[in-house]
Amino acid sequence: MTTSVPRRRILYAFGMAPLLVACAPIAPGGGGSGAGPVTASNDQLDPEAVLRYADTSSPSRFDPHRSTVGQDIRFFTPVYDRLVHLSPDGQPIPGLATSWTWEEDGRALRMELRQGVRFHDGTPFDAEAVRANVERGKTVPGTSVGTDLANVESVEVAGPSTVVLRLSQPTAMLPGLLSHRAGAMVSPAAFADPDLDLRPVGTGMYRVTDYQPNNVIVYERNPDYWDDTVVGVRRLELRILTDEVTRMNALRTGEVDIALLNGRLGEEARGLPGVTVHQKVTLAYAGLLLNRARSQFADVRVRRAMNLAIDRPAIVAGVYFGAGEATVQPFPSTYYAHNPDFPADHYARDLARARALLAEAGHPNGFDFEMLVPSLTAFVQLAEAMQRMLAEVGIRARLRSVEVAQAGDVFYSQRDGDSLIAQWGGRPDPSMTIGLQYMPGGFANPGAHTTARLEELQRRALSTLDRQEREAAVREASGEIADQALDVPVIVEATTYATTERVANFSTLVTGQPDFRTLGALRTP
Amino acid sequence: MLRYTVRRILMIIPLLFLVSLGVFALVLLIPGDPAITIAGENATEAQIDATRERLGLNDPVLVQYASWAGNALTGDLGSSLFSNESVVGAIGGRFPVTLSLTVAAMVAALLIAVPAGITAALRRGRWQDRGATLFASVGISLPNFWVGILLIMAFALAFPIFPAVGYTPLSDGVGPWVLGLVLPGITLGTAVAAEITRQLRGSLSDTLQQDFIRTARANGLTARAVIAKHGLKNAAVPVVTVMGFQIGFLLGGSVIVERVFGLPGLGDLAIRAVLQRDIPMIQGIVVVSALIVMLVNLVVDLSYGWLNPKVRQA
Prior knowledge:
Chain A is α+β, with helices and mostly antiparallel strands. Chain A is 26% helix and 23% strand.
């Protein structure tokens, strides 16, 4: 999905500094401003157009099963269809699988596959290709989707275009996982190509005709694409421009039509003639993650006091220039996992109550703790703002700077440091976020602390196959996380894209990536 | 002269060896383990170990170095640990950009510095001299990213004469290639221009006070001939030396200027390689850059022979 905080290292959640900064700020809810987003019907679109697009960095790898950064998905979707796609609000919808049904109490997932689809190299897409891809995802050296697929014990080819995924235990979030890198279908004929990282081969609406890492990616239309309703453009040129001002200048001078911007430039971009700014919250949230086995964080009163000490709206406005929405839970208000009973002001700043809770917990004079801060401007600013706010109730944070690439290792693996300023990149399914961050065995839960109720809700969410019941369980879990103040979330971040007048039907998914299936260019009159 | 040249060329070999060894040692000191990143985000300890083994990161340092150096001798600098792109290919793809930028910067610097330096030397103590000295001080102090942003605002945004970002290869036409290099060239060349102006002013005004200049004038040579033939050539040695040094500066400065103008050059490649701990890529870039600097120094040294016949006999 949007990002994924890698399990080993938050590394890339922050690792790619420019990217992170770019994904920072904006106003909640989304929609465009300035010129107003252009929506056009298919016959108003120019299928022969060339669109140019500025992004911040290349994918870590172009092999979806081995890419180490969750956000890479935005580069993959034009080339690689997944078994499952996502609707704009993050719901699983048919992709290369046209339908799926649970069998054997959730221990098997039967998927019907789209017929007549071919990979870019002519290899037919069929049940055998799915089996080969899942096998590869589980076993290829350096796989980053092995954990996503861990519960898949085997893939049975039940017909030329039917597969049955046999699971070791009910895994209701599997369709969500298959919408991301784990479900990306690579041509089996290209598995052995050592240059797969430079020349991706999928079934997607575009093929990559030129790729120079950290310079340019050229996508050209796949004339044999299975979905006739997709218009797209003849050529999509993605240029990697690391510097935010450079991307802005490229947009301003018309050298690109679409630019991923740093949120704080959103306001400026809005003032440009003919430019539309699209800001939409994503699944990435930032705040202070706590090791609840350390310092005084085992006590819920202490954690609530910390949450009450933070002035979220001030941070959203001051540090993020409004590019995001304040939050007390790990999911944005636009997402189905969000629990509406815990709005952003559930922990509105209340110093008196915070002090009272601290006194009740036996710390009338506050306490000291250590805050790890990855050395990236956005995190340092967030840390300093939180440090000051906490100090006002007597909680004294000692800031310890850690190198960005080390932060995840130090806090998660070595279990060093009481807390970490971090951006959690989001996952394609909310149960994954909950499992990793709040379950005892979760990689991103170094204190292995949880609550009995949360465990029960997570168990229910993973084993309930009924979608509505499952969503209810996830929502309740999110509420439990907020109620128990398991960490100190501050902001759900928004991505900021700006487009020129030529660009039509631009939108982003809740995961933050542009929806390439709708994206097009207007015919020039 | 020939022996001198050959000896200088041969000296490059041990120097490159030392540089590559130095870089290798430095890279080992950088904290962070590429195997963890490469193994993927959900990797187990065992998978990370396997990755380390596969990449040869478990081998003794000297073995790693020897295997790298052995391949390097055959022209194979390895592949990026991340994208599998060959290091030679990546550098080869980006070198023309940085080379173009460096040449553009040098041209811009000379176009500014030569007239400014000559004027200052001839009009010593007058307002032209003060103006050139002021330019030199300011030019050296200005951060080049800032100069770049100002130039973009003026000549790409307010008056859209030049493109604000990007590089057009020479193969797409000389015109677009030059247009795209004007602003980055001036940006990167300003500090160099300032430095050369200072040197040229000092050196030329010293030379112009020499006896042979007085003699040349007394013989009735035109002012132009005196300055161009007798003055500049004699004043050139320190200036050429400074220009040689500046090549190193230009390669370093290109890191920032490439970002500001979105040019896919070596500097940009280098930054990313360091951030990712992409060891073969870092090695390759440093060795190639070192080689360039050494070659430039060689050319500078050889040019002394042309400028000053005394050196030829030495």
